[in-house]
Amino acid sequence: MNDIKMLDAVERYIRGEMEPGERLQFENLRKSNAEVDQLVVEHTLFLQQINQFGQRKSFKSSLNDIHTDLTEQGKIESMKLTGKARIVYLWKRYKRVTAIAASIAGITALSISALVWAFAPRQNSSLIDLNRKVEAVADKQKTQGQEVRILRDQLEIEKNKVKKNIQYKSGGTGFLVDGKGYLITNAHIIRQSKNVAVINNKGEQFDAVVLFTDNAKDIAILKIIDKSYKTIASLPYGISKTVSDVAEPIYTLGYPRNDIVYSEGYLSARTGFNGDTLSCQLGIAANRGNSGGPVFNHNGEVIGILSTKETESEGVAFAIQSKYIFDAFDYLRNQDTAHQSVKIPARSAVRGMDKQQQVKKIQDYVFMVKGD
Amino acid sequence: MKSQTDEKALLEGLAANDKRSAETIYKENFNTIQALIVNNNGSSDDARDIFQESMIVLYEKACSGSFELNCQIKTFLYSVARRLWLKRLQQQNRFTSPGDSMEVVVPVEDDIEAHEQRDAEYEMMENAINHLGEPCKSLIEAYYLQKKSMQEIAANFGYTNADNAKNQKYKCLMRLKKIFFTHYKNGNGDE
Question: Given this model, what pLDDT does residue A230 score?
Answer without folding.
Answer: 86
